[in-house]
Recover the amino acids of this structure.
């Protein structure tokens, strides 16, 4: 889910004024609402994607491939979350797969909820974490201070402006008495490089991380338990659509509502897309993943019909 400064900054995202959306010249590209009886208005769908949010990028391109195989013409539009939700409420976009609830996007839900259709959540364990190598001798953050020397007395963080960094500094470190450890504020690439180097060498390492992220598929890591809840509660990632979308596209809406992704599925998709292929061709990455998960689409459609 790198780059993380986009990902973590959303923890306290401010409402973006409607005038900003208009100023960026959103194109009116949503599906029509004049469907004839029993049919869809058209087979054009626009997916809005939050810029820099890897899980949303991954799932959006996954659904783009699914819909294209069904004969739809799919456009993707990338923008900041405020622009996405302003545009969706105005009917400029059809679907977004990345509304975090109940916390991160609560303000958008409150402001635009009457003009959106909530199609349900597809992931239920989105959270901030402190992670360590899988074979580390501890399992909880409350064990970290007493075993700090085993981790070089360091916790490797990411960018200074990230919400994850603020929460680690202001909440987790005082809650668990970690003031004696060196909290290294660096960057997401630097953190991932340290994580890779340590796990490759069989050494202990403690880093700030978040779910969902491809690092869980690429490296042998585990989250430390957070008994005091200092890192915050897990959130659900919802799919939302413009008003009238289900009426215009009932089959697509049912597929989206039936969507669920396990950690293994999501992390492996992100790993192919952003790590192995470095984000070079997201549509090709999705095709690679679908080849490795040949029953996924059929299982999704079966779940929608159940």
């Amino acid at each position: 889910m790198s780059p993380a400064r986009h990902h973590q900054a959303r923890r306290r995202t401010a409402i973006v004024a409607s005038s900003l959306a208009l100023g960026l010249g959103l194109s009116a590209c949503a599906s029509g609402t004049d469907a004839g009886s029993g049919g869809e208005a058209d087979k054009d769908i626009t997916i809005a994607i939050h810029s820099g949010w890897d899980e949303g990028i991954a799932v959006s391109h996954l659904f783009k491939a699914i819909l294209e195989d069904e004969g739809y013409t799919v456009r993707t539009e990338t923008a900041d979350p405020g622009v996405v939700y302003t545009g969706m409420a105005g009917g400029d976009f059809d679907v977004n797969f990345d509304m975090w609830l109940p916390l991160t996007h609560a303000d958008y839900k409150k402001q635009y909820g009457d003009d959106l259709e909530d199609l349900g959540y597809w992931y239920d364990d989105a959270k901030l974490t402190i992670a360590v190598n899988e074979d580390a001798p501890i399992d909880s953050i409350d064990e970290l201070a007493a075993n700090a020397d085993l981790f070089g007395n360091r916790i490797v963080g990411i960018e200074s402006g990230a919400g994850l960094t603020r929460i680690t500094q202001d909440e987790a470190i005082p809650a668990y008495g970690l003031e004696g450890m060196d909290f290294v504020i660096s960057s997401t690439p630097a953190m991932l490089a340290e994580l890779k180097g340590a796990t490759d060498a069989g050494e202990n390492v403690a880093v700030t991380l978040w779910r969902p992220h491809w690092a869980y598929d690429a490296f042998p890591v585990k989250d430390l338990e957070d008994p005091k809840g200092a890192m915050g509660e897990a959130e659900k990632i919802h799919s939302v659509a413009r008003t009238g979308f289900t009426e215009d596209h009932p089959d697509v809406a049912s597929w989206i509502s039936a969507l669920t992704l396990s950690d293994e599925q999501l992390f492996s998709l992100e790993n192919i897309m952003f790590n192995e292929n470095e984000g070079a061709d997201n549509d090709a990455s999705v095709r690679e993943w679908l080849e490795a998960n040949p029953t996924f689409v059929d299982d999704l459609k079966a779940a929608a019909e159940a």
Remarks:
- The beta strands are 44-50, 73-79, 95-101, 116-133, 154-156, 182-184, 206-211, 221-223, 235-242.
- The first strand starts at residue 44 and ends at 50.
- Confidence is low (pLDDT under 50) at residues 1-39.
